Amino acid sequence: MTADARAVQTVTGRVRPEALGRTLIHEHVLIGFPGWNLDALAPRFDRGDAMARAVDQMQRLRDLGVGTFVDPCPMDLGRDVEFLAELSQKSELQIVCTTGAYFEAEGITHTFRHLPVEEITAIYIKEIVEGIGDTGIRAGAVKIATGAHHISDYERKLVQAGARAARETGVPLISHTQEGSCGHDQIDLVTGEGVAADRLVVGHSDGVDDHEYHRSLAERGAFVGFDRFGITLILPDEVRVKNVLKLAHAGHTRNILLSHDSIVCWQGRPVPFAARYEDVLAMLPDWRPTSILTKIVPQLRAGGLTEADITTILVDNPRRLFAGA
Ligand SMILES: [Zn+2]
After folding, report:
1. Deepest of 8, 50, 312, 324, by most Cβ within 10 A of its Cβ?
2. Pseudo-torsion of CA 123, 226, 15, 93, nearest 10°?
3. Which residues of 290-318 are buried (b: 16+ CB within 10 A; e: fewer)?
């Protein structure tokens, strides 16, 4: 039943945790929000154009010394693991995909609303152990997701299913939170199912300017995701840098993970207020998967982090997340 406990499942096969290298823990290649294909006014999706754009971005990351790109696309947001596998082969960047569905307000809820937790767990385990659909491509982690300030019954069921699948297979959990809330509830649910907190990334914790929240998550052993660098509509990056430095200087460098939650290609229009990808980049110029290495790491160095600290955050922490204790 279990996946190979000492291997990380990428979309092109298993690698040792030590082979991950510099890892971006939460980025997306391709997203399509539910209903994107109903929007006849949206730009037409061209797979070839999308692949070319994605290969270009992955090669830029390789040039910056990135070894692995984790794409925790929920199964209901246009996840396309064959696209990821082709991209990984073309770009020679390792990519990890996930099983698990999105939070209630923005996911596709009809089927899982009616399935019991045991069956959802079995579906997640199938995607980790056997593969997604009939592709043979295995998920290497579980995505869990909750809404703002309250976990609905639907979300609680899916988080429990995700934790049970992680417990059975040994893969880690990567979460979505809204507005920097419910991280402790996620830890409660995950540990309640017998999974150690250090197998969980509380994602998007940088959505709130609250050092006490970040420190309290780290004190429980979870990884704290500062994983929306560049999304300055939520908070300026200077605030994220300040909070990363505070957490590191409080002794929790080993709990920090960095990423952008960038989206390289969209199916349909990217967000309701922007018809084209170029419009989004014009609004959020640093929301691209290269910004941490080109712009943020120098700021962290200037704030007092050593090269060893940077390696801990970019290399050792992802390796420990995937390898387990
Ligand atoms: Zn995301």
Report:
1. 8
2. 110
3. bbbbeebbebbeeeebeeebbebbbbebb
| Segments in the chain below pLDDT 50 | 1
Work out the mean pLDDT of the chain and round it to a whole number.
Answer: 95
Query: What's the pLDDT at 1?
Result: 44
C-alpha 300 – ligand 1 centre gap (Å):
23
The H or E element spanning position 24 is strand 22-24
Secondary structure class of 38 (helix, strand, coil): helix
Q: Please give all residues whose CB falls under 5 A of ion ligand 1, grouped by chain where several chains appear.
A: 261
- Residue 159: partners with Cβ closer than 8 Å, 6 or more residues away: 144, 146, 151, 186, 189, 190
* Ligand 1 center–CA 176 separation, angstroms: 7
Q: How many CB atoms lie within 10 A of CB 230?
A: 24
CB distance 28 to 35 below 8 Å: no
DSSP run (H or E) holding 156: helix 153-169
